[in-house]
Design a protein that fits this description.
binds zinc ion, DD-CPase-like, signal, alpha+beta, Peptidoglycan-bd-like, 3 domains, four-stranded antiparallel β-sheet, globular, Zn_M74/Hedgehog-like, 12 helices, carboxypeptidase activity, Muramoyl-pentapeptide Carboxypeptidase, domain 1
Length: 347
């Protein structure tokens, strides 16, 4: 790969040098020579690194942690439309931010921070039509993330589908996802409560998953999805009053630290456990099917058994979290948590 790049670099250098040589022969004025040298130098530095893939968007799905030439190509295109990120070849935090911010500014794109087919087409349109993008317009760029009073890091990109929300990583208090919808799945209640909602990419995936379960004669029900910061605040306070803070911390979250605020989570249950959210759901046909099949649709069991020391939560077979298919497969097939998965990524 490197030698190929090197060869290409030399090739470009030869062309550039031979161009300059030709111009010299035509005896142009000194100031013109200077100018041409300047432009030659400029295109020399930019083209040497971007030429192989310039304006050519990769076909492959790329996301946080991806690495290679395709990532460089994407990073160069993002820079071409106005972003200013390092073309490092690693799909890092800044690349995730740029893609998420871009997706937010487009109509009809799932906002996930991952680069896929539809995002590719949108980028192509923007390039073809010279559409103006204002970097950071929808998701302001943050160099250093802030902290809560309890020293949890506040994420600057809550729309990232791989966003980490736990007892050390919080969502901004004012974060209300703009793409909340009610998935077309069965609920054990009829009122239109906010907890029916999920962010669109997660809701669509959940509809597919519930349909697949139904096709196998299983009865999955959605119990509780999106929860606002304020609602979590009220809940957590009531749990502390009832059970004390230490106990409440094991099954609930401080406001900002609940995944339910992300809109990427749903608590799932079934008639077999009378629509309750308890450990025995994991032993039902529905619970077992969910654990085996959720990754196919981009979901994970977020708080698995035996990982309490990492997640800091008790086992919750009912709490599923959308992370997209690539990460979900990796996490579920290797019996790891989101925390462990993110730690393995080069970011
Ligand atoms: Zn939950």
């Amino acid at each position: 790969m490197f030698s190929h790049k090197k060869r290409l670099f030399i090739f470009i250098m030869i062309i550039l040098l031979s161009n300059t040589a030709c111009q010299d022969k035509d005896s142009i004025q000194p100031d013109e020579v200077d100018q041409s040298n300047e432009t030659t130098n400029k295109s020399d530095t930019t083209k040497a690194s971007t030429k192989p893939t310039e304006n050519e968007l990769p076909d492959k799905t790329l996301q946080k942690g991806s690495q290679g030439e395709e990532v460089i190509a994407l990073q160069n295109i993002l820079n071409n439309i106005g972003y200013s990120i390092t073309a490092s070849g690693t799909y890092d935090k800044d690349t995730t931010w740029a893609v998420t911010d871009f997706q937010m500014q487009q109509e009809d794109l799932f906002v996930t921070g991952a680069y896929e087919e539809k995002t590719k087409r949108a980028l192509e349109e923007v390039l073809a039509d010279n559409i103006d993008i204002t970097p950071g317009e929808d998701i302001p760029y943050t160099e250093k993330e802030e902290q809560t009073e309890d020293h949890s890091t506040i994420t600057s990109n809550p729309y990232d589908m791989l966003v980490l929300v736990n007892k050390e990583h919080a969502l901004p208090a004012d974060f209300i996802p703009e793409d909340l919808v009610i998935p077309d799945v069965p609920f054990p209640f009829t009122e239109d409560l906010p907890k029916k909602m999920m962010r669109k990419p997660a809701a669509i995936a959940m509809e597919e998953m519930f349909q697949a379960a139904e096709n196998e004669g299983l009865e999955l029900f959605a119990q509780s999805g999106y929860r606002s910061y304020e609602r979590q605040e009220a809940l957590f306070t009531s749990y502390i009053e009832r059970d004390g803070e230490e106990a409440a911390n094991k099954y609930s979250a401080k406001p900002g630290e609940s995944e339910h605020q992300s809109g990427l989570t749903m608590d799932v249950t079934s008639p077999a456990v009378e629509f309750l959210l308890n450990e025995s759901f994991g032993d039902t046909e529905e619970g077992k099917w969910l654990e085996e099949n959720c990754s196919t649709y981009g979901f994970i069991i977020r708080y698995p058994k035996g990982k309490e020391n990492i997640t800091k939560y008790q086992y919750e077979p009912w709490h599923i979290r959308y992370v997209g298919k690539i990460a979900a497969k990796e996490i579920m097939n290797n019996d790891i948590t989101l925390e462990e998965y993110l730690a393995t990524l080069k970011q």
